[in-house]
Request: fold
Amino acid sequence: MLTLHYAPNSRAGRIVWLLKELDLPFEMNAMRFHPEDLKSADHRKRHPLGRVPVLDDDDVQIYESGAIIEYVLARHAPGKLKPAVDDAEFPAYLQWFHYCEGMVMPPINTIVVQTLLLPPDRRDETVLQQAKKLLGKALAPVNEALQNQDYVAGEFSAADIMLGHACIMSGRLGVVGDDMAHLTAYIDRLLARPACAEAFAA
Amino acid sequence: MLTLHYAPNSRAGRIVWLLKELDLPFEMNAMRFHPEDLKSADHRKRHPLGRVPVLDDDDVQIYESGAIIEYVLARHAPGKLKPAVDDAEFPAYLQWFHYCEGMVMPPINTIVVQTLLLPPDRRDETVLQQAKKLLGKALAPVNEALQNQDYVAGEFSAADIMLGHACIMSGRLGVVGDDMAHLTAYIDRLLARPACAEAFAA
Reply:
């Protein structure tokens, strides 16, 4: 049995999206995005820093959204949502999957901290503007990669869940400008998928 | 033929380390860690933001160190440096592989920016100290995971290259304290591997 330890407006949405795309049954431990839940003794046993998502699969417990996606695909959905090793799209799949946390999420994290998490008197406008600029730069190659294709690695894949989730977050943070038409269309295309819409509505 | 586009003191060291562990022949395009090289028109054709590593494999070109590691293992070294899907260490391998960029590298990036890349008059001591604190917190679970094992997922694996590279960088940035004895021993253990030592000497 799969159990997802979850909080809204977090990377845990990626796992909801994945599991719904795959039509895999799972239970959800829905916590609030609040220290009382995430930093509780119970949750710190699952993740020492009190982060989500964490996935339980019988006696296996695993965290990091990218790791959970790879784990679920390998153990519960082999051959799905990921090009085969000899497929021409395999390198693009890997590249964009990892580009999400390597390039896109660091400035998103900073923007969230500087606009939502810190109290107003501790926010730093310079840090915020630098992060917005950096996020725009990081998204430009994604916009370009989508110029001639609907998804980042051929057919819809788990790379679109990882990176697409970060693109949708970027849109909500107001950083996807009118100059990024392909990225805007991509975000709309992803949100038209029922599994994605459900994950973002949760 | 594999060609690694490289600059010192970057994530490109992970790929040198990997290829030497696997004894795979490769050519190296050794650039300086300098805008004249990394932001050149030639290199921007390989990576639009002028980052390293980038790997060429005949007609394939791929960036993001985590993606390159997965690509090399899948196409050139199947079964090596990675537990099989049904191996009990498979979840730990994935978790720590992704923990590197998800949790450890963001504060490392900030520390490097605030101590090396920004001119002194643009550095922010508060941002630097917050990043050091965050990095210490991110490393604590790694230290704990190493309490009873030499490597993060059983035998030495590519997860030790990803995460170990970040741990070694953390040590050089002065953030691995005396309270992290397991992590300190791990760093020494990794640097005793010839492939690792060569990668960090390059």
